[in-house]
């Protein structure tokens, strides 16, 4: 399935939202409770999944955009 720019933007937005939530949790006046810490770990896991997804998308797009005959052997 080819990825559209909108899909990539949606993944990045989700990552930014999760990271914003992380910052809010760390700046929380109630401190880092056990439940907040668990939520932070869960969000961080999701952020890592999204990073890997973006890397895979990027790798696939680079491979797709390279012409197969780009590396032609030199004639002897």
**What's the count of strands?**
0
Major sheet description: none
Topology as a string of helices (H) and strands (E): HH
**Percentage of residues in DSSP E strands:** under 5%
Q: Uncertain spans, ≥5 residues at pLDDT below 50?
A: none
Distance between the termini: 40 Å
Helix content: over 70%
Overall pLDDT: 84
**What structural category arises from helix and sheet content?**
mainly alpha
Task: Describe, in plain words, how this protein is organized in 3D.
The relative contact order is 0.13. By secondary structure, this protein is mainly α. The chain is built from 2 helices and no strands. The chain is elongated, with a radius of gyration of 20 Å. The chain has a domain at 1-6 and 21-64. The chain has helices spanning 5-26, 34-65. Helix 1 packs antiparallel against helix 2.
Detail the topology: elements first, then pairings.
Layout: H1 5-26, H2 34-65
Features:
76 residues; elongated
Structure at a glance:
The protein is mostly helical and 76 residues long.
